[in-house]
Specification:
This protein has 65 residues and is mainly α. The protein contains two helices and two strands; from the N terminus they run βααβ. Helix 1 crosses helix 2.
Length: 65
């Protein structure tokens, strides 16, 4: 999963990943469950790649994905 833009103030990597997964699974009726997305991230089954990291504004550290 490629992240090319900064996250919105209340957005998490899991939020962005869930939307990305939903876009990849065309034809499904509902987005993936947030717990599933967090589990995929935690077990490294889904790995976010941050492009232009040095150009993104620093964000406050938040717990969780």
């Amino acid at each position: 999963m490629l992240i090319e833009t900064a996250l919105a103030p209340a957005e998490t990597v899991a939020d962005r990943a869930g939307r990305w997964l939903a876009a990849q699974a065309q034809g499904t009726t509902s987005p993936p469950e947030p717990d599933l997305v967090r589990a995929l991230l935690a077990t490294k089954r889904l790995v976010p790649i941050v492009d232009h990291l040095s150009e993104l504004a620093p964000a406050p550290c938040r717990r969780g994905w």
